[in-house]
Amino acid sequence: MDKKSVSYNSGHSSHQTMSGSQFQRFSRFIQSHLGIRMPGAKKTMLESRLNKRLRALGINGFKDYEKYLFSEKGQEKEIPQLIDVVTTNTTYFFREGQHFDLLSEVVLPEWWEQHSGEDRNFHIWSAGCSTGEEPYTLAIVLNEFAEKHPGFKFSVLGTDISNEVVQTAQRAVYPEEKVEEFSDRIKRKYLMRSKDKNVNKVRVVPEMRKQVQFRVLNFLDDFEIKKSMDAIFCRNVIIYFEKAIQEHLIQKLYRHLNPGGFLFIGHSETLAGLDVPLRLEKPTVYKKLT
Ligand SMILES: C[S@@+](CC[C@H](N)C(=O)[O-])C[C@H]1O[C@@H](n2cnc3c(N)ncnc32)[C@H](O)[C@@H]1O
Q1: In 10 A of CB 198, how many CB atoms?
Q2: Is the dihedral of CA 241, 242, 248, 253 positive or negative?
Q3: CA–CA separation, 263 and 212 (whole Å)
Q4: CA of residue 5 to ligand 1 center, whole Å
Q5: In degrees rounded to 5, what are phi and psi of residue 140?
Q6: Do 155 and 188 meet the contact criterion of CB atoms below 8 Å apart?
Q7: For residue range 116-172, what is the model confidence (pLDDT) as tens digits?
Q8: 86 lines ligand 1 (CB under 6 A)
Q9: Quick check: CB of 160 below 6 Å from ligand 1?
Q10: Strands 154-160, 201-204: parallel, antiparallel or unpaired by DSSP?
Q11: Could you tell me the pTM of the whole model?
Q12: Which domains, from first to last, does the chain contain?
């Protein structure tokens, strides 16, 4: 038997391996539809993530999975599932905390000074929001600012390519460990505990949930966002993309920013070498000038 198509059984679970050419085909597809780089070094990772799909579909090997994925039905039904397993969705509340400090100490006061007499909201977008921790952190920070600045109004948009994480974000229910570093004041104000004391979960309060709108959105599609943004958080997303896709995405985000608006990227990311007219204000924080 061909070593590449061996399946090993251990109890109920079996692990299937994919051939080099199957990997090439999946990885090309993932790069062109999701933007996510899939070099050869990621073969084992892709294999193990796709094994979940094989099990869920009751498919015995990658040959059948390949046939299904690239069939008409597969293209309609399987792509969202593939996206859910292939994307890396690690995130947490108040991640890279300096960004939220900069937002409340510099960006918001400056914006409020210029717009306080106007009837308009501060619009912010968490682009690649995963399970919602980033947009809800933004809602908390903005709400704290609003309480000190009567008349300040805001809205938060959270988008992600994965249906599954967007649904989790909309539910806004999190294990208690995810919020253990919140101060008691923030916990009391923004979180509800389950009535069942045995359930170690919390839910973001309805007042904050209604400030945040979620939407499934693939950066590679021709998308439109109706509102122009005053700030965009697109953190720990472009790191997974090739340079050409990074540049294309940043240009799209640029078009959705108001003049004077801010773009925040992740601490291990950079826009250096990309052709976008944004000025570096602080490490990983950029401003649109015109
Ligand atoms: C590591 S998470 C970052 C979450 C959050 N921004 C943070 O920094 O904590 C990256 C997110 O980008 C999303 N993503 C990957 N490719 C995407 C694409 N082509 N369009 C939209 N979102 C994408 C993934 O689904 C994932 O949830």
Answers
A1: 5
A2: positive
A3: 19
A4: 32
A5: -65, -50
A6: no
A7: 999 999 999 999 999 999 999 999 999 999 999 999 999 999 999 999 999 999 999
A8: no
A9: yes
A10: unpaired
A11: 0.94
A12: 3-86 (1.10.155.10), 98-288 (3.40.50.150)
